[in-house]
Design brief:
The protein is an alpha/beta fold. The chain has twelve helices and ten strands. Helix 8 crosses helix 11. The N and C termini lie far apart (46 Å).
């Protein structure tokens, strides 16, 4: 039986790994020792929408990983990429499909250098989840989809990943232009991340105050201009969808950047906002609002480091 390794059992990896296991896939989670002990004791729970779902997951720690897998789903935060690359290396063989779920695009360079462009697929995940204080996965909205694709020409790894991930309780698409799809997601998460970070609340709260309804579209225009200059312009329908999300009255939507900050955790500010603004500068695109949002979160990250003695 084909086997799937999910690297990480956080909000994203835990959710999709649970779905795959529930639909009969042979799924193992590669996690740190403390998380492994928790999952072995309590199971892996998905909650938030309807009845709770609990599985008894197969788990491994780095010291126990000693064989290759057919598909490896890399679901850690971008801040943990360097450590994860070394941890998962024994799982990647010549025919393995490595599917990263990280935000932004810089991780492709790191993974390509280590494992090769044929092995590494592009991946776009759309899901709203967060990790509960008890280690459970809290689903915040019903949407759940994965889009995969080869970075260049189609490869056997794409077909393998499609076969193992399809029909597992979430939408799966295969894109002929996965890099553009990743850019378009980057624009979306950067826009809502910058909006909620600068506005200090959910989308609906920001829209409800004077000037709030104009902030999201202004940020979106900056992010979209960077994508266009990079050769990946947003289609009109994608632009309209994102703009509507950023201006929806009464919306409770936030962002991972906002939720991490509210929870006192490190954020992916550099990978979501800083790297996008940096690409903008290289392409001659001004991004003052993205720069301001990045600066705001850098101050927060510095405060965290000082509190931790760093």
């Amino acid at each position: 039986m084909s086997r799937i390794l999910v690297v990480g059992a956080g909000a994203t990896g835990g959710f999709f790994g649970t779905r795959l296991a529930q639909h009969g896939r042979d799924v193992t989670f590669l996690v740190r020792e403390a998380r492994a002990a928790q999952l072995r004791r309590d199971g892996l729970r998905v909650t938030g929408l309807g009845a709770d779902e609990v599985i008894t997951p197969q788990v491994l720690t780095t010291a126990e990983l000693d064989t290759t897998y057919d598909v490896v789903l890399l679901t850690v935060k971008a801040t943990a990429l360097d450590a994860a690359v070394g941890d998962l290396a024994p799982a990647v063989g010549p025919d393995t499909a490595l599917v990263p779920f990280l935000n932004g695009l810089d991780h492709l360079r790191v993974l390509n250098d280590r494992f090769g462009v044929q092995t590494v697929l592009g991946g776009v995940v759309m899901v709203m989840t967060t990790l509960g204080a008890d280690g459970s996965i809290v689903q915040l909205a019903p949407m759940a989809s994965i889009t995969i694709g080869a970075q260049r020409e189609p490869t056997p790894q794409v077909r393998l990943a499609e076969r193992l991930l399809a029909g597992a309780g979430f939408e799966l698409d295969v894109s002929a232009d996965i890099v553009s799809a990743m850019w378009h997601k980057w624009v979306f998460i950067a826009s809502i991340g910058a909006l909620t970070s600068l506005g200090g609340g959910a989308v609906g709260e920001i829209v409800a105050v004077p000037g709030g309804a104009d902030l999201g579209p202004a940020i979106l225009d900056e992010a979209a201009a960077v994508a266009k200059a990079a050769g990946h312009p947003l289609p009109d329908e994608r632009y309209a969808f994102t703009r509507a999300m950023l201006t929806e009255s009464g919306s409770a939507n936030t962002s991972s950047l906002f939720r991490d900050r509210q929870g006192g955790r490190p954020t992916e500010a550099e990978h979501i906002l800083g790297h996008l603004a940096r690409r903008g500068r290289a392409l001659g695109v001004d991004t003052p609002l993205l720069d301001l949002a990045t600066l705001t979160l850098r101050v927060y990250e510095k405060r965290l480091a000082v509190a931790a003695g760093g």
